[in-house]
Sequence to fold (64 residues):
Amino acid sequence: ADQRVGVVVSSQAMLRDGRHEIAQGKTLAEGLEVRILDGDLAWTQVELADGQRGWVDSKSVKQI
Fold:
């Protein structure tokens, strides 16, 4: 399985239901580690430690 790990590098990272969906109202903390599931140059799909999944602006998460 692909286990890419990323870290949130922006204090403005908002979790969204889809690439262009309205934000879920959840802001991800800068420095938070997430699992990277999918993505492109614009949007990255992540999974949080609690299993919640969503999309964030690709500029706000960096693979580590």
In short: The two ends are 17 Å apart (CA to CA).
